[in-house]
Amino acid sequence: MGENSSTDVYLFKKALKELRDKKGKGTELISLYIPAGRRLSDVSQYLKEELSQSSNIKSKTTKKNVQSAIEVILQRLKLLKEPLEKGVIIFAGMIPRGGPGTEKMEVYVLEPPEPVKTFIYKCDSQFYTEPLEGFIQDKDVYGVILIDRNEATLGIVRGKDIQITKKLTSGVPGKFKAGGQSARRLERLIDDAAHQFMVRVGEYANEGLLPILEEKKLRGILVGGPGNTKNEFVEKDYLHHELKKKVIDTFDLCYTEEFGIRELLDKASDLLRDMELMKEKEVVQRFFKELIKEDGGLAAYGEKEVMKYLLIGAVDVLIVTEDINMTRVTVKCNNCDYTEEINVKTDELSKFEEELKTKTCPTCEGMLYIEDTKDIIEYLSELCKESNTELRVISTDTEEGSQISKAFRGMAAILRYRLD
After folding, report:
1. Nearest Cα to Cα of residue 204 among 256, 239, 162
2. Tens digit of each residue's pLDDT (9 = 90 or more) over 23-65
3. Among 84, 93, 223, 271, which is least packed, fewest CB within 10 Å?
4. Among 368, 346, 347, 370, which residue's Cα sits nearest to residue 357?
5. How many CB atoms neighbour CB 132 within 10 A?
């Protein structure tokens, strides 16, 4: 997924969901977005003013909680180093944990995946996470070329951001009727002017898109416009041959300016989503191909078997579904150095913890406790990095993803080699 791997996106989505679900008692949860390059002393000054304003809050509890949250943020700002290259996002506030008097101050300091553009300070009963939603969007880059005989617009699309890089007009005269020799001559002049215009558009497109292709971030090129010019532009050699391979499709449009780009993205949205799902389907089909071989081929499935191969570095591609619902738990003894790591269903964690109290250490019969818990995909991602294994976190929206989830409990692998 361009810069973001499917793992990064999964973990970011998970953190975002947890933040979205947190609720305060009153309007006392603070969300602070600090843009890249903003001086922290200015932000501190702003927060101190908010602190003095907060003394006007009528409810004693809300006033106390808002002031505590602002003070906690001021403390955190002192730990940050300037300049902030991408800015920073801080959430703080009292979160009720159950019955009365169970509130606990929670603070989250996030380094955004891309620069924060605007300063936001918000006090509400929920954290303000809307600006973060955009970071989840697929940040792969698509080149867009809109062209007809009169004008062209070149642009780059990243997630929801559309950037127009060049607008060109052709100066090609419209076709008009005239008789005989002069008509043919005029026709030739018009065709030549159209050809020269397409050469210019191709040069600008090459200049803008080749560097992105070299960085391996260009996912594809969409070409659109009214009439036949767009087809002619793609079929002939106006684009660099490497870019020509990246053309996904051409689209009939009514417009060639920014409005045309929105029209184009609208028409291409299903196709682009299908392309993403196709990549998921391909890897799952590769797994099934191995699975139906006589000896089970290079396929492994189920948590126990997959973990065995993963720990010896024998997995080429690990396939995990987004709904896997598992946590990696580290259990330790409070008496000796006995340690055990185990995968537990996330919704059974508290039950596991209760049961642990009734067990003793197999080495010294000391008390066992949970030292650490980690999201299973985060844990698998670290394992995969060590053995250079590709990790594919897939959705269950496709039939294939759903099969992996149901038949293989969300975990399957394509192996490098089998153990006898």
Report:
1. 239
2. 888 889 999 999 998 999 999 999 999 999 999 988 898 999 9
3. 271
4. 368
5. 22
